[in-house]
Amino acid sequence: MLEALSVVDHMRLPPEGAGTVRAFSRIGYDLPAALADLIDNSIDAGASRVEITFFRDDHDINAVTIADDGRGMDADELRVGMQFAGKTTHRQSDLGTYGMGLKSASFSQCSTLTVVSRRNQSTIASRWSAEEIDVDWRCAVLDPTGAKAVFDDLCMKGHQPACGTLVIWERLDRLGVSADPDALNEFLSTALPRLNAHLGLVFHRYLQQGALAISVAVRHSQRSLALPRNVRPINPFGYQTSGAADYPKTLVCALPNVGTIELQAHIWPENVLTESFNLGGKRGAECQGFYFYRNNRLIQAGGWNGVFKNEHDAELCLARIAVDLPPGGIDVNVQKSALQVTAAQAQAFIRASDGGMDLPRYAEQAKEVYRAARRRVSDAADPVLVPSLGLPYGVRNAAERRLSKGGPTEKITFVWEPLEEGKVFELDPIEARIMLNREYRRAILGDAPASAADAPLFKMLLFLVVRNEFGRSRSSKKQQERLQLINELLMDVVKSR
User: How many Å apart are CA 390 and CA 315, to the nearest integer?
Assistant: First the structure.
């Protein structure tokens, strides 16, 4: 059909620098996924330890560093590493895929990327900035003396590695917060637990085996002490007793363009409220589906990839399948957070079998376990009110366990909102919320920093005092007077601060 089109010339069309950087900044990475991509490089370099540090002042995050004790790079390797889609020969055991992770992950979060690396007592460094990319793709080669000083100062201070790599993000356009003096503390109190949960899940096999240690620290510009927190493994299959007899089962699947692979089909036990089930605060229905691993790194956490129509079927919330992928065969997205499964491969997953049971039958058995649990719950008492978002994860998890005793629950959340003057709190029974007056937040917190889970003692006590009000279909005059009295008593305390 196109025979009439013949080539008469060629033109060279290099990418436009500023547009490329903008594209990377919108490629879809969030902060946890971007940092996980850099940790992949550290693992490929043989690192046993990775340290992530956020450098801050009172209002902003000024820089983020990712340091490892891997084998480091020489000048040629650093040149390839800094090149966009550089020609890299990957081993089958490597986690790197496209030769883009360092740059795409970094420029999704920052506008200046510096890499300092040490091998055999030689320290080298290079830097990309958005402006230099826009000026004919010029990558700066940095002074080795200065590179040595920066490496000594910032790379795992306290147990300096003989070799390793330090990645520095500056001009963090995605991590800015408002000028509110409490905004940065609140952001960090939410973002860091989410980061720890993500890294603990993605690298849980490495962490459990002791092959890798990851720590996260925040260093204030006016304080020398920065206490790192070690990332704990979160195993999405970390239950003690299976939810169904004879599980887990191994199903065999003949996958087009890949070959024969095994699917480890699990059914979680009912009413297990653990971090391994909720995966950092998610609902169980969000965590069902396939868990794809490549070289022990979790690529995708849940989802059915078109195998079942409903990705969040409540009746399948106990169903999880672990799949260890061979090298190649199924494409991974740039962020290494999901697989690109073809229609033919999805149909092959449906036909996976152990010789007597296929995937649809497994799904039905998982639903049967869930339904049986719901029937037992329906015969029990009404849902128990439990405190939820607005309290530290461990506190609300313990409260739910103590109050519900495995039965049905209704969650009450805490939010800081603008309320009319003189009211410390209001109840929102429709949205199941306890609203706290933002104007009095500092008086309630005292010297404690604001965060998404601040004032836990105040919130818990208030919840215990007012929780019965949420169960009423309508509030009587007596109840209204009681809530007004509680508000007035709390207001007296607020005014005394």
Answer: 28
